[in-house]
User: What shape does this take?
Amino acid sequence: MASMEHPIFSLSTKPDTRIRRYEHNGRFVEITPSVKGLATMHDRDVLIYCISQLMAGLNDGKQLSQTVRFKAYDLLQATNRMTNGQGYEGLKAALERLRGTTISTNVTTGGEEQFDVFGIIERARIVRETRDGRMQEVEIKLSDWVFNAIAAKEVLTLHRDYFRLRKPLERRIYELARKHCGSQGTWKISLDLLQKKCGSNSTPREFKRLVQNIVKQDASHSHMPDYGIRLEGEQVVFTNRGTMLPKEEPRQPAKLFISGETRLKAKEIAKGWDIDELYFEWCDWVNKRNLGTPKNTDKAFLGFCRKWFETRGRP
Assistant: This one.
């Protein structure tokens, strides 16, 4: 949800090497590229796919892991990409940009605000590769920032036709409508604020022209998923097509955030134990006892780990 609210991904289809900073209502995001450029809206497909795999497992009662492993072909097919050599090379380039893009922010995930500097993904590894150079399996470790948001279920579903939108600006506009309009009947936003939230570097006049083109195409073909879009003067109006119902909204976040530093301390306290496993044991323990959110989640989690190790010792 945080990455849908703030313009983290570049709208450019060419290497974008400028440092960007976005500020709104006391929150800021600064995005610094590598020499290969910022991660793009199309690179975001990789992150969306990883999150969807983790959420599906979480909903099935499986243990959540910060590392995701999948078949490259499945990702390319699910995100409406070519499955030839060009598609695999594009995926490699996306992984490099995702790993190289650095974010500095005070945006809250998991219910707690803190200043963080991190990559969108911590690392990526091609596990198997065919003789002709095509990757078969990919392993990605998500950043703590992304992982904590998933653990707190700060995630929204996207329409499958999102991957059929080829223009980066169309995708970004849909994300904002999904985040802000949700299951409401309508949502309005000024062109100025929409441009700011999109992270567009166009002139206001050019941005309005681009939005007008999207409006015209949607009026002719209804190609925007979930929401119709129209212009009323300097206001952009989104209308729910009826595909987004209130019951589809996610549960409220558990807000049991723990920092990366706390995870390291927990490893020392509960030597040999999987910290992700202990994290979910702790969440279940808190929720079953209706204790509410601890005032200091880091301290509470470390206390739980200490008691756990005293009782059970090494696994």
Remarks:
- Confidence is low (pLDDT under 50) at residues 247-254.
- Strands lie at 20-24, 27-32, 67-71, 102-105, 116-119, 121-129, 135-142, 186-190, 227-232, 235-240.
- The radius of gyration is 21 Å.
